[in-house]
Amino acid sequence: MPYPEQMVAPMRAELTSSGIQELRSPDEVDTFFRDGSGLSLLLVNSVCGCAAGSARPAILQAMEHGKRPQRFATVFAGQDLEATARARELMGDVPPSSPSVAVFRDQELVHFMPRHLIEGRSPEEIAGDLTAAFDTLCS
Question: How many Å apart are CA 55 and CA 27, to the nearest integer?
């Protein structure tokens, strides 16, 4: 059962206030990927401490990097269930993981960072891994 919206609203706003597009329905997920080309980053957000203390701050840091995806979006696991399920379908055989970070080239998954590479790490370490991937994928 999803958490009350007033509890998760600040967790959503932390990302959307920085220009990350929130995808709350399967149609929004499909439109995001259908209407864009190039590199896109999708954060599977969650209410857990590693999302709050590591994943979300790391994404915001990585957005400042010179080479980066053209578009950033997020789905909220445990909240927007259908949107998250649709996003996970696009990730193919990758096991569900939240939080997690997926980078797509057009609609093809080209980089994935599951929860176990986020949990217990600092935002700086995670952002460093992401920007290294951006450097490779954006060249």
Answer: 25
Provide the residue ranges of all domains of the chain, joining segments of one domain with +.
Answer: 5-133
pTM for the full model? 0.95
Q: Which among 47, 48, 90, 117 is annotated as catalytic?
A: 48
Active-site residue 138, yes or no?
Answer: no
> Which homologous superfamily is 5-133 in?
Glutaredoxin (3.40.30.10)
Neighbour-count burial for 115-132, b at 16+ CB within 10 Å, e otherwise: beebbebebeebbbbbbe
Q: Chunked in runs of 10, what are the mean pLDDT values of the chain (139 residues)?
A: 88 96 98 92 94 96 97 96 97 96 95 97 98 94
